Fold this sequence. Notes:
Number of domains: 2
Oligomer: single chain
CATH topology of the largest domain: Immunoglobulin-like
Largest sheet: 7 strands, mixed
CATH superfamily of the largest domain: Cupredoxins -  blue copper proteins
Bound molecules: copper (II) ion
Number of helices: 4
Helix content: under 10%
Number of strands: 34
Structural class: mainly beta
Amino acid sequence: MQAAGVVAASPFLPRMSLAGTGDFLELTARPGTAPLLGEGSPEVPIWGYDGAVPGPIIRGRKGGTIRVRFRNELDQPTSIHWHGIRIENSMDGVAGLTQPAVEPGDTFDYVFTVPDAGTYWYHAHNRSWEQVERGLYGALIVDEAEPAFAPAQDVTLVLDDWRVSPSGRIDEGFGDMGDWSHGGRLGNWLTINGATRPDIPLAAGRTSRVRLINAANARILELDLESLGATVVAYDGQPLAAPEALAYNPFLLGPGQRMDLLVTPGAPGTLALIEMSGDPFAFGQFVVTPADDQEAEAPALLPNLLPEPDLANAVEFDLDMAGGMMGRMTGAIVDGRYLEGEELFASRQVWAFNGVAGLSPEPFFGVERGTSVILNVTNDTAFPHAMHVHGHHFRIVARSDSEIDHRPWRDTFLIGPTQTTRIAFVADNPGKWLFHCHMLEHQAAGMKTWFEVT
Ligand SMILES: [Cu+2]
């Protein structure tokens, strides 16, 4: 992890609001530079939305419509996925499944309703292992019908893990099979909203909502949230019925996952945001200053209304995850052919679901709209994974044969080596939906499938 760096200023308030306008937001993917390494270091060439990392915060209101006129000024095709939105299928942005990739110089209009208030994000979904790593991501915030927190107490932090070469540029060893077949591309430089060890302002005696988004390709962040005195109010966008104490510490936040915290600093001073997966490292700090007026009570968040799966009458499917280094997989079907050994490795498809690497012409399963679905997922690999369901949120009902009582809605779950996880949801959103590992190198190397709701 990086040594002590210079504290950089960075905007922590939304740069853009779409609420209430009928207009299109113009959003362009293009190369740019960003001060990823902090003040005093040269800016780093990146690819970003509007040339910035992160891209602009896109903000809508629950039940409203977001209209984005997207333009691709990169030299490779791309698309945008709106992660966690229970979205219309044709707007889900999965190149090759829900739309053709947007070619260089072309535009695509994304128009979709945002049914749920909460913390979401958007990112590239074509060659995402390269495009997201180069910086193509941003926060997508859906406000409650009445905004719940004052802007100064509503803080969005997009966390990323970069692999920076000694020359101070993004390491261009994309597609390294060592990364693809092990734990994905793990970096050596952490940023918050594209800044190195930033100061994040908070007011003493005030309750702030802190939205955390893990935009890293592969790193599971291990965050010391206990030292912030934080409680949790939402996972993966969906508010809990009431704020909850942390179940454990440090808290794991996998790639693609979000969590919203309430933080109420008592007195002026600083509170470090510490990452514990290596040596404990403060990669940002909350700078607490006196509040200039009386504290208003922190507003309660209302849960979104999601359909509850009927566990007794659900249709069950099993998914066996296999492959990778130190795994037991001997072969897999790639593009309709069974490959093993050297030939499999040469295909770059080294992970499989139910023996199939990558997308097959037939879905993993197909159900009629409204069907309650249970997925029994077994991780028969030597690595943890972050499994993401598109277009739906689910509840985790059991882990390795232990029933789970606490079942917040999620759109991405972590599963450890040899673990099994049972998730349930109502397949109520018609279309073709991806189900994949959000460690983007794993996804590229075969860890994906799709299901169809008709
Ligand atoms: Cu994975």
